[in-house]
Fold 3-methylmercaptopropionyl-CoA dehydrogenase.
Amino acid sequence: MPEFKTPLRDMKFLLHEVFDYDSHYATLPNGEEATPDVVDAILEESARFAESEIAPINQSGDEEGCKLEDGKVTTPKGFKEAYDTYRDSGWPSLSHPTEYGGQGLPMSLGLIKHEIMATANWSWSMYPGLSIGAMNTIFIHGTDEQKQKYLNPLVSGEWMGTMCLTEPQCGTDLGQVKTKAEPNGDGTFKITGTKIFISSGDHDMTDNIIHVVLARLPGAPEGTRGISLFIVPKMKINADGSVGESNNVTCGSLEKKMGIKASATCVMNFDGSEAVMLGPENKGMECMFTFMNTARIGTAIQGVAHSELSFQGALRYAKERRSMRSLSGKKEPEKPADALIYHADVRRMLLTQKAITEGGRAMLYHAAKFADLMATGDPEDYKQFDDKLGFLTPILKGFLTELGLESANHGMQVFGGHGYIREWGMEQIVRDARISTLYEGTTGIQALDLLGRKVIILSRGKAVPEYTGEILRFCGHHNPITGSRKRRVLRRYVTELSQLAVKWNYITGRILMAARTDRDAVGAAAYDFMMFSGYVTMGYFWAQMVAVAYDKLEHGGNETPEFYKAKIRTAEFYLDRILPRQMAHAEALTNGPRTLMSLDNDSFVFE
Amino acid sequence: MPEFKTPLRDMKFLLHEVFDYDSHYATLPNGEEATPDVVDAILEESARFAESEIAPINQSGDEEGCKLEDGKVTTPKGFKEAYDTYRDSGWPSLSHPTEYGGQGLPMSLGLIKHEIMATANWSWSMYPGLSIGAMNTIFIHGTDEQKQKYLNPLVSGEWMGTMCLTEPQCGTDLGQVKTKAEPNGDGTFKITGTKIFISSGDHDMTDNIIHVVLARLPGAPEGTRGISLFIVPKMKINADGSVGESNNVTCGSLEKKMGIKASATCVMNFDGSEAVMLGPENKGMECMFTFMNTARIGTAIQGVAHSELSFQGALRYAKERRSMRSLSGKKEPEKPADALIYHADVRRMLLTQKAITEGGRAMLYHAAKFADLMATGDPEDYKQFDDKLGFLTPILKGFLTELGLESANHGMQVFGGHGYIREWGMEQIVRDARISTLYEGTTGIQALDLLGRKVIILSRGKAVPEYTGEILRFCGHHNPITGSRKRRVLRRYVTELSQLAVKWNYITGRILMAARTDRDAVGAAAYDFMMFSGYVTMGYFWAQMVAVAYDKLEHGGNETPEFYKAKIRTAEFYLDRILPRQMAHAEALTNGPRTLMSLDNDSFVFE
């Protein structure tokens, strides 16, 4: 497994230089304490913990996996000890409300901390990561009593939480959920059913686990309108808050998976387990979305995390391993061959990884601001930020995990045959990354969420021109002739992005027109529309980074001009080599749904 | 693991209807016996063996893997038994010369048989598959004595062979090979050194293994000009041809890999092992290429094989699994949800798999004809066929394995979260497919072989206009207005392919110009050039298939018009949805090498 070094310089560049988090935090009700010094200290301490405590057990965790013995799940060697250190250092409570024992810092800081932990050891980070979804759901939908009872030990990290949605017969289609909730008549319920794919469903890290479970009340309407949410602890909770006897929540088996083997993926059996209802009756799906949006941004982080780790490994290997001579002449004549990094095709793969990682990180850090504003702003602004984040979330989750998987594969490819051998750790990154396009809504579901829900149903198409309006304002501002900044160096970015903003609007309009007569036009276009949106969005963020980099170079006063020059070079690479992919996606989707939909189900194969 | 059904209908379509193998075989010196009936019988018997004997041990082989105990490698349960049946049925000798005990049938039949076996169980198929490389190398470069001694038991399958190239310090860059060959003075040699990544380096399937080994004679020139080939048997061979005592060839360890776990990937130690030289002194690299071309086509088969198997699994699941309702209205109102296959985005993935599989297979079967002609044609024609096959080989290997991996991932994606769970077998296909872009020359090496060697060095750019000339002749023939066939239904294919043929020529010319002043222009363009070439070539083969399909539909007399209609639909899908990717590759490569090459090695990362 490649050694992990937290990319602190890049993170600080985004936080302090590109997105001005310093001012952002200063205006937040809960941002006062998040001064630049505190932010940097949190980054550095997160990095220290991640690099020294959990990165070293990433590969061993994969080799060892989780074990189920006597109905109890054991995590790999070192996982519980690392979690004890994490909890004792107060990390779980970082960005949770002070009224439940949290440190009350902005949510974005929690996400950035999570990115660092996740890059060091994705499987380990899933345990505290999934707990956040349960916490947020209880925080928003729970009664005061529920919050007091469950949130305090969750926030402190004494307990962890999970979300129990999927059942054997249904993943995405939660309307098919069969788990039953029977009222006891005293306001409590008995939950009976089987849930599958429950990450952290059981483990040895905490004494109790709080499950948030989707289930159906007797006589509830069919489909998604008859589903409610319940809080079901693994162990009953005594009146004094201490852990009591078993609540009949058991792990039936552990899934054998391609990767994230150190993360316990459980089949969970609830057998008359005591529960309380969370949120209103039959409104479980709506309440669920609170969790889903958090989880989807958490999964988007996975794209960047695996891309970063794979890039670090590939870069180090490309500098150390020597093979063949550069086509343009010997670069290391004293050595038997030139380092891989001198070969153009290896540079293509490394730069693709770099452009994906840094571009993706910029997209995430921008979105994280909306999460802060939604959590603390006034309710009137909430809708505005929810809309903005809602539009970006499927792009972040869908596009960044697809590119993260691509990047993980490039990193492995740089190693040649050695990449396929487990000891190097590069193939583990690919296996771990592979889940990211599947869970928390597949790529196809993200694409439908973006185009079908966010663009067409919720905004009647306006979400796109609103967003491209922002891009066009950026272009106008930096226009080399008419803009207020008159940036000649940004000419190419302004030209390309202006054209692509218009193209994005045009494509959206075409799909809207087609959808009037053929709903399949939406499903047929969704994937390519999301990928097109992702490439243009990432291009816009590269342009923003480049604008800052030129500023810094022009106004001097910085110690590392090479850092800014590298940003500019990488952005140019993105424009030259990655952004052209939008052409293929635009062309594919404007070709319409006919060839997708016209083949008979029975004509896919002939024996 | 999805059940495997040999796609016999598609194979027969290509052999009998598209490529007219019936006439091809009739004109081959060794094709007389390969009548259509015999060909079909071989396909059907191969299918029977593959489906009943080796497909059932594909997943168990992955779970069990190979074991090294007391210096001996054991293959997974059932592997040896299946091989015994294979050998006793005479399969190894199918397309080898009769003078060494072979059945003397054309090489293409051997490749197609191999495709069937490979789809059923790639790891198993590697054992007899790699033996072919050793056999071909000995057949072409061996002395009569060597052929008599080694080829007979290899052809019968009594023994197997390997190729030992890679060493710890070098994979692609074989000029760094250190393994020593010391002359004994009697025409024999002692080989000492360590080879890694030796597939089938040791196993329990045969009593002896014949290693073809790259090694360096004392005082040989440095680099690739000082490397010779040697035949090194695992066990010495007695004068009567029986297996004698150990030849100090031992397996030091087995690699732990991402996939192909049932294939033994060995570290092989040669410790003064007795050997004879194969081919001329210091010409080992040239002799090696004989093997490499075979191996590369064998690996191109892997792309199609994994794509086929993954497609079969995904298609079956998409018809059985129900989730959500189709956007255009309920398709199965009596069921709780519609089958996945009704959803546009699932169809996109399935059709992509289908287009890749069938398009790739067509490319392979076309190339296999050249292999036949090279093996049996007169020496004057050899160069012509070698050039044609040499141009196509890196496209087949590089492009088809990249697309095969993509297809395997689509198949897994159709399963949603279940695709990540091992019991379904879909993730194994991805892990098994992942090696195909790495071994036998990575994708980057194939790209350089195509653009740098085949196009620029060997043909001075002419290889492309020669090939596009063929495409343009096809377009001219089928032109709806001026062509001899005047095919209105082919209008779109003719239009697009004509434009792309011209674009391919233009791009090649641009790179040639750029390469005059900057050799890095070749390396920087190579990957995108190869992918562009692949997409256009596959488009050309889809057009050929469509031309035949329309013929069949127009002239009736066939029992399955749906088969031909499905071909046409799939071709249209390819044009609409896959071929547009050429735009991105063309744009990327014409942007030139600057942004690839200009970033300092030290500026890739800042801490």
Observations:
- Residues 121 and 402 of chain B are 19 Å apart (CA to CA).
- Chain B has a mean pLDDT of 95.
- DSSP finds 19 helices and eleven strands in chain B.
